[in-house]
Amino acid sequence: MWYSTNLAPRAQIGYSTGTYMVIVGHCHTMPMEIEMTLNGTERTFEAERSDSLLDVLRRNGYTGAKRGCDTGICGFCTVTVDGEPERSCIKPVATIDGTAVETIEGIGTQDDLHPIQAAFVDNAALQCGFCIPGMIMQSRSLLANNPDPTEAEIREGLAGNLCRCTGYEKIIDAVQDAAERMSGEQTVVTDGGDLTHETAGCSSQDWSRGECDE
Amino acid sequence: MSKPNGPQDDDSHQRLSSSAEAEHPLEWDESPNNRKSKSERQAISRREEKTDARKIVTGESKYTADYALHFPDLAEASILRSDIAHGYVTEIDTSDADAMDGVYAVITPDSDEVPDAMYTSAGQSYPEPSPWDLNVLRRKVRYVGDPIAAVAATDTQTANKALRAIDVTYEELDAVLDPEEAMEPDAPQIHDPDQVENIQPGADYERNIEAHTEGEIGDVDTAFEEAATRDDWFVTETEWKTPYQSHCVPEPHTTIAHRDEDNRFHLITSTQVPYHTRRQLAHLFDVPIRDIRVTKPRIGAGFGAKQSMLIEPITVALMLAADRPVKLETTRREQFYAMRFRRSARVQMRSVVTQDGAIKAFDMSAVTNAGAYGPHGLTVTSSIATKPLPLYTHTPNIRFEMKAVHTNLPIGGAIRGYGAPQGHFALEGHMDEVANKLGLDPIVLRSRNLIGNGDLDTASGVTTDGEHVRRIRSCGINDCIERGKAAIGWEDVKQPEEDHLHRACGVALTAQKSGVAGDELGAAHIRMNEDGSFILQTGAVDIGPGADTAMAQIAAEVLGVPPEDVLVQASDTDISPFDYGAYASSTTYVTGSAVKKAAEDARAQLLEFASQMLDEPVENLQARDGAVRSTQTGDSVTIEDIGYESIYGDNVRAQVMGQASHCTDESPPPFGAQFADVTVNEHTGEFEIHQLVFAVDCGVAINPDLVEGQVEGAMHMSYEFAVSAGLSFENDGTPETLGFRDYGMPTTADQPPLESILVETHEPTGPFGAKSVAEIPVNGVPPALSNAIHSAVGVRITDLPITAEKIRAKLDTD
Ligand code: FES
Ligand code: FES
Q1: How confident is the model at residue B814, as a pLDDT?
Q2: Which range marks the domain in which residue B478 is found?
Q3: Nearest atom (ligand 1) to Cα of A74
Q4: Half-sphere exposure of B160 (CA within 13 A, CB side)
């Protein structure tokens, strides 16, 4: 066979049609309530036991996180849970109860971008944008843990976030640029200057889309 | 006129050229403002921020699935797909699914809402060259993935549960998975010609051939006969194989269908071809075109995946059956077996080349695996020759034969490059083999035969026996080679200290087109608000690369305003002017020309107003920096003043509105040179790519950031095609590659650094000198890498993907 169809013996695990989702105890009549601190605000959401965090976020208007695979591989749905980056599509929502969740909607606004967002814009590090919310959330965690990463560390840190459009070059540039911008800002804060987004919280006028006023 | 050392053309070639000379003059009647020096440019050639950048980084950019919240009674849907590769569905029992709580509709081929009409999924102009061989839901199934039934329910989980409750009985037929076997007389026949409408040449469904054609320029057989008698002419034969490639489109195909307040069908859908989709849906559902509206929101990229109408018909049928809005969002798993792919191919090359490197003849043939259905079969397979061969268009004798063959495997479709990657792998690998045989430097051999500015290109018309000819009016390929060589370090490759490691660079030249010559239409409409801003409507379908931004820059350059003062509206068939869609590298070249003309129309009106306001003749006026200024008096009025005057003024009131259409028989090729720098371990076959460089001549870059983005993104896909593409199947056609990880899409950690170099030329037929760039960089990495590896360790990999195992196996046998 010359078409690289790589014939192999039939796998043990049966192949089934339809989608990939494994449904465990799904039941319409028993919704549960999930409490979380979402982008700094206490929220309570109704959910099915089988829902992922991504399902609940998107159903409630937080559509910045994207569904690219639903299996934890593409990274388009990345949010942070208690400060750690998580693939929200494989995070059962039941495990979220009582945690603090941050999504792309809580990071900055179009008029006042977070330095990472500004670096992505200024470096033209985006095309279709489907991967970008997840990429920015992952980059934010990366820079929180390692404020001055090497290129190799950036490549390692973003390896779980796919992008089909950019070839990654400009994204890596953007994260390096963001690191520089943020190290500059930290100096300002230490000097008693302006607060960054990270510390400004809900007092900032930027929170114009209702995440903070509930 | 560009090849001082070029070979003499044969007489036959000369005759053809002279008859075509007059029809395709070098001179082009270019409007005076089309050619601007770098210092004159205001809005173009600038790294303008992408219009949607800020909403993308804040997560506010809305893609199809994000519109779900607009429809409170929205049903969610799933598709039941065949799990056998070939056979008949003899029975579908949906009673359990129908009875399930939360299920609104279950549709099968027998449902009233499901059309019986045949169609093609190819999003092409009318009449589509692709065969009408598809039903919306299928009683005969031809691959694992054919849709059989679909469910709309309260949510996806319920829909999936209902799917599992559907009982399907099959009568199984023998399947054939290999195109060569499929052409054997005793192979299972996949299509019944009586059921298919196929206008492609050479279809022979008894042998599973959907298209078969051949074209010739000059006399190839005679060249080979002569070569047999001479010892200074050399014959080289090679064969190349390429696998399936997935678009890995980030946003899975998604459609929302509902009825608007006038009871028309309204679709919000992830498409590259809103207008073709509207027409094809009208045909299928037998409703007037005017009763369908297709809205394109932001698109999570296309790469050709969405130049197809794949799930829209099922969504509409479910919407009718459920009598409520329906959202159908495909899964990643479906993306990897049930959508469309780059078709696998086998390409054979034979050539006659003289001792000193003049190409006398190319004989090329390609067989592609169309998979179960025929969209884009003829056009993609023909492109295997017609896109790369113009590089060496002076070759006096060229023949190309192509066959597109059905198998019971996933369906080939349109994908970035559109046949050109398969063709370039063969042609540019072959050129290196010829250079090796003749002992010539690979770049010297290419340069001896290379196309140049002012040339008449006949090779792109090989499938028309050379009847289709085009004039090359811009060509920067030599600069691409020089700058690429410098960037990769061609002249100075340092060998590693370890004896078993060998480092080398490889090169491949590339070409593409800019739109489908004679088969495109772009249209644009631009109007001025009273504050001096503009609303630009085009059918240009921005699927991510930034077409909207480029269009705003073109309009702004004409109008003398900042690009941010031109607001671009996304394509919507109720609102936008017509457009063929985002494919064939046509948007900047074709729709961009329409935008430029529409803006010129608006500017003429602007200047009329300014002329009255300044009491100066129009000839003295110049629109620049947001104002119109008299070059004589220096007096000026701002664009905003003109806006208020045009709408609220005391004299003539008329809104400034420009419009234009653009179609053209021209399709100038962009050119590029791909370089790869690699070190190979001669013990293990493992290789490390240090860098990939692509230098491109795309005319004038309207927005260098966006152009670099195209180059880097396409090089990433080309790299994947070189080292990790391919789908695997079980013996019965069951797919095994069902996710990103199985498939091996490159990540930040495993992709080598990419460098893009923009070589500016001026294409007089393009808007402000622009040609296309979206596809050309996807062509070069496989041959450049194969050539580099050959140069490093002397083994030739002719089948993709290139792996350490293959290199090692060759090292062991050689
Ligand atoms: S959608 Fe969650 S990782 Fe892909
Ligand atoms: S920008 Fe399209 S996937 Fe990253």
Answers
A1: 76
A2: 473-516+666-814
A3: 4
A4: 16
CA of B614 to the centre of ligand 2 (A): 49
Angle at B196 between CA B178 and CA B175, to 5 degrees: 25
Beta carbons within 10 angstroms of residue B575's beta carbon: 13
Is the CATH number of domain A115-198 3.40.50.720? no
B529-570 pLDDT, tens digit each: 999 999 999 988 999 999 999 999 999 999 999 999 999 999
Compare CB distances from B740 to A73, A127, A172 and report the shortest one's residue: A73
| Domain-located, residue B14 | no
CB spacing of A164 vs B252 below 8 angstroms? no
Residue B601 tokens read as 């129309």
**How distant is the alpha carbon of residue A70 from its chain centre?**
13
- B695, β-bridge pairs: B673, B757
B410 and B526: one domain? no
**What ipTM was predicted for this assembly?**
0.96
> Are A58 and B64 spatial neighbours (Cβ–Cβ below 8 Å)?
no
Residue A1, amino acid: M
Whether the Cβ atoms of residue A47 and residue A101 lie closer than 8 Å to each other = no
Correct CATH for A32-106 of 3.10.350.10, 3.20.20.140, 3.10.20.30, 3.40.50.300: 3.10.20.30
The neighbouring-strand residues paired with B93 are B167
Looking up tokens 């003043």, which residue turns up? B641
Ligand at minimal distance from the CA of B710 is: 2
CA atoms of B237 and B363, how far apart (whole Å): 9
Cβ neighbours of A165 in B, within 8 Å = 250, 301, 544-545, 709, 713
Whole-angstrom Cα distance, residue B14 to residue B181? Answer: 42
Q: How far apart are CA B455 and CA B474, in angstroms?
A: 9
Tokens in use for B480? 């691409």
- The residue of chain A with its CA nearest to that of B302 is A128
> Which of B629, B662, B695 delimits the end of a domain?
B662
Give residue B722 CA to ligand 2 midpoint distance, Å.
Answer: 21
B271-326 residue pLDDT tens: 999 999 999 999 999 999 999 999 999 999 999 999 999 999 999 999 999 999 99
Q: Tell me which chain A residue has its CA closest to the CA of residue B725.
A: A4
Neighbouring C-beta atoms of residue B445, cutoff 10 Å = 24
Q: Is the pTM here over 0.90, yes or no? A: yes
CA–CA min distance A80, chain B (Å): 15
Q: How many CB atoms lie within 10 A of CB B499?
A: 8
Half-sphere exposure of B647 (CA within 13 A, CB side): 15
Residue A61 has pLDDT above 70, yes or no: yes
Separation of alpha carbons A21 and B11, rounded Å = 66
